[in-house]
């Protein structure tokens, strides 16, 4: 049978976490350049994530509809099995059109 969790192990983890938090708070309250740069980068990250969240809420359906196109075709509304005939400068008279199956 396995040994139960040792309270000494859990207390070491909790003590380490508390000491890390207290050291982090002490550094956070200090006004040196390293902390200022960290605060700027952290605020930039938070603002960017919030902007991405709101942009996805506004334009998410549009992006989703662009990815999952409606119409004939394969899975997810992909391109049809046969390619449309090209006209004009895109094809010459003697070109052999190759498909993805060849």
UniProtKB/TrEMBL annotation:
InterPro entries named in the record: TCTA (IPR016560)
Keyword Cytoplasm assigned: no
One Gene Ontology CC term in the entry: membrane
Residue stretches spanning the membrane: 37-59
Main location: membrane
Region described as Disordered: spans on this chain: 70-102
Localisation: Membrane
Highest taxon in the source lineage: Eukaryota
Keyword Transmembrane on entry: yes
One record GO biological process: osteoclast fusion
Record key words, sorted: Membrane, Transmembrane, Transmembrane helix
Family annotation (PANTHER family): T-CELL LEUKEMIA TRANSLOCATION-ALTERED GENE PROTEIN
Family: Belongs to the TCTA family.
Protein name: T-cell leukemia translocation-altered gene protein homolog
Annotated organism of origin: Esox lucius
